[in-house]
Amino acid sequence: MAGDGLKFISATTTTFKAAGPMARLAALRARIRYLLERPLTPYYLILGATLLLVVLGLVMVFSASQILVMQRHLPITFFFRKQLVAALLGGAMMLVLSRMPTRVLRVLVYPLLCVVVGALVLVAIPGIGQQVNGNRNWINLGFFQIQPSEFAKFGLVLWGADLLARKQKTHMLDQWKHLLVPLVPGTLLMLMLIMLGGDMGTTMILIAMLFGLLWMVGAPLRLFGATLGVAVAACTALIITVPHRLDRLACIGVTKPDPNLNCFQALHGLYAFAAGGPFGSGLGAGTEKWGQLPEAHTDFIFAATGEELGLVGTLSVLGLFAALGYAGIRVAIGTKDPFVRYAAGAATTWIMAQAMINLGSALGLLPIAGVPLPLFSYGGSAMLSALCAIGVLLCFARSTPGAKKALAARSKNSRVRTGLSRVLPRRRTTARPAPRPARRER
Q1: Per-residue pLDDT at 208
Q2: What angle do CA 179, 182, 188 make, to 5 degrees?
Q3: Hey, what long-range contacts does 219-227 have (CB within 8 A, 24 or more apart)?
Q4: How many angstroms separate the Cα of 180 from the Cα of each of 177, 217, 222, 353, 374?
Q5: Contact, 319 vs 350, CB < 8 A?
Q6: Could you report how far apart the first and last alpha carbons of the chain are, in Å?
Q7: Which of 59, 62, 254, 417 is exposed most, by the fewest CB atoms within 10 A?
């Protein structure tokens, strides 16, 4: 299929100018299909989209936090420097995880899970857990604060995938109790510890990851529906019983100012998008961050991006997340290893669900959940955990059979090796000729 498409492209590109519009469109579609079907395409899509999101996020964090640092009498690069350190440290962790064998990742599953659950327990203890913006889900280590709930997502990715892969190997997933136990109770334990701090947004993301794992493992529809019903009922109860969550739910689709200023942030997020227009007001020229748009560098950084970079900037961010999601799905369906499939699917569900919740909140389509935009918003713990997930995806993208063959062929015929072979002396491949026997004297 790919070979036929390539022949078609090579045949049409020589007479591209003379071809009609339909032939040009068909040639372009064949070329795109050929590029997308290459074995290393998911790897480069994940790596390229991640780097672009991190770099653009650093620029927007610096721009959106300028007014806040002046109000607090801080250095103008305060938030930018902290985010840059988190990005560099997360990049190093991503590189290590991308080169780590899959069997080593599975060895680290349970130690990581124990550390995550222990940290969540420490957060729930009064006096240890730090409260920020009404939620107690931080631990102050002196030189920096860490949010264990962000790493609970990474722990669920590896633990859930390893658990389901082991059960599939022993043919235990045919029974419903092995589908749910201990995956659902373990996830509920983490959810309860997170909800003790009031972090509803992270709870929603973990629930989405749980349903993603159940969907990939092939849970029966009735079991899937029953679990979904219980989750919806529990989330509804958690929203109704807390007044400020119910107020946020009422802000969906708001277009007019509220006398009690309940929807102030959601309304000014829409004002930021409206002020941006097609191409934006320019980097640093946004006006909503001058006290009108709270959390412009964290939860509502997408609105600040829409104001300063316009529709072009927001569509670029959406396109990068779409490429990241497509590549993650390609990695999940392109492998025969169940652990790789479940872990890649759960990591992709995490990134995409969190991105959709954040984007929906900024656009007024969902209630404000207080979750950062992955790889983009300010937040050291969120950046570190997201880059760890990306490192795992890169590791899986390199481990597929087609990618291994392509990488081996590329390393064998690399330009560096070819250039060095022209400069360095060649290794002897044959033995030296034996010396001739001495001539006898007559």
Answers
A1: 94
A2: 105
A3: 219/179, 220/176, 223/176, 223/179, 223/180, 227/180, 227/184
A4: 5, 11, 13, 22, 29
A5: no
A6: 78
A7: 417
Looking at residue 383, its pLDDT comes to 97
Backbone angles phi, psi at 426, to 5 degrees: -75, 145
The stretch 231-260 carries a mean pLDDT of: 80
- Residue 193 in contact with residue 143, Cβ under 8 Å? no
User: What percentage of the chain has pLDDT greater than the value 70?
Assistant: 88
- The distance from CA 53 to its chain's CA centroid, rounded to whole angstroms, is 10
The whole-number pLDDT of residue 219 equals: 86
> pLDDT by residue (tens digit) across 111-145?
999 999 999 999 988 888 888 777 788 898 877 78
Q: Which residue has the higher pLDDT, 12 or 44?
A: 44
Residue 323 has a pLDDT of 97
**Residue 146: how many CB atoms within 10 A of its CB?**
18
From residue 116, give the alpha-carbon distance in Å to each of 132, 142, 148.
Answer: 20, 19, 6
Other CB atoms within a 10 A radius of the CB of residue 254 amount to 16
**CB–CB of 88/378 below 8 Å?**
no
CA distance 156 to 211: 12
- The enclosing H or E element of 394 equals helix 380-399
The type of residue at 75 is: P
- Cβ within 8 Å of residue 236, ≥6 positions away: none
Distance CA 264, CA 119 (A): 34
Total residue count of the chain as it appears in this document: 442
> In which residue are the tokens 């290459």 written?
38
Q: Please report, as a single letter, which amino acid is at residue 270.
A: L
* C-beta of residue 97 within 8 angstroms of C-beta of residue 392: yes
Q: pLDDT for 305-346, tens place per residue?
A: 999 999 999 999 999 999 999 999 999 998 999 999 999 999
Find out whether 120 and 148 touch, Cβ atoms under 8 Å: yes
Distances from the Cα of 168 to the Cαs of 1, 179, 207, 208, in angstroms?
33, 10, 22, 21
Measure the CA–CA gap between 209 and 351, rounded to whole angstroms. 10
Mean pLDDT of all residues belonging to the chain = 87
Taking Cα atoms as reference points, which of 59, 133, 160 lies closest to residue 392?
160
HSE at residue 1, side-chain half, CA atoms within 13 A, is 6
Which pLDDT belongs to residue 248? Answer: 82
The whole-model pTM stands at 0.88
C-alpha dihedral (345, 349, 352, 353), degrees to nearest 10 = 170
pLDDT > 60? residue 6? no
The two structure tokens encoding residue 254: 């708001």
